[in-house]
Write a structure and sequence with these properties.
The protein is an all-alpha fold. The chain has a domain at about 85-165. It is built from three helices and two strands. The protein has a two-stranded antiparallel ribbon. β1 and β2 (about 15) form a beta hairpin. The longest helix has about 110 residues, at about 20-125. The relative contact order is 0.04. The model has no long low-confidence stretch (mean pLDDT about 80).
């Protein structure tokens, strides 16, 4: 076998076996290929992640716009309702003030009539019957005026509340 190289001679070279050389080279080739793939695909992965983030950001901004529009509509509705209630409260306050004015006017009339009756009786006790008649006539006139005032207040309430819908 002189010049022939045996398989066992080829399988070892400098103390390393052919299998260990091929295995080491294969592992480094695999590592190099994986590293190359990762380096080349990195920009694509980053772009994909940024696109996903951008899409999510766009969806969130759209949702925020819808929520803000809904909140603005609710604020507008609340303001309208508040103005309606304020108008109703003002109308009721005005009606109550008018009623209190009528009551105060009536109390003043009654006080005036009683004071007048007592004065007439004190001045001439024999004419007490005539004084009572005079005071009664005055009270009847006052009651007519008071009734007209109450009617005016009731009519104003009806107008303020609006005509009934048929």
């Amino acid at each position: 076998m002189g010049n022939a190289v045996s398989f066992t001679t080829l399988s070892t070279w400098g103390g390393l076996s052919l299998g260990s050389i091929l295995t080491s080279a294969g592992i480094w080739t695999l590592v190099g290929g994986a590293l190359t793939y990762w380096i080349r695909s990195r920009p694509l992965l980053l772009k994909q992640r940024n696109d996903a983030d951008g899409s999510l950001r766009g969806d969130l901004l759209e949702r925020i716009d819808k929520l803000e529009a809904g909140a603005a509509a609710q604020v507008t509705k609340i303001e309208e309702t508040r103005r309606e209630y304020e108008a109703k409260i003002e109308a009721k306050d005005a009606a109550h003030s008018a009623e209190i004015g009528v009551m105060r006017h009536r109390m003043n009339n009654l006080d005036q009539s009683l004071t007048m009756l007592l004065t007439l009786i004190e001045e001439n006790p024999e004419r007490a019957q005539q004084a009572a008649k005079r005071v009664r006539e005055q009270r009847e006139k006052q009651e007519i005026i008071e009734s007209a005032e109450k009617s005016a207040i009731s009519a104003a309430r009806i107008v303020a509340a609006g005509a009934p819908k048929l």
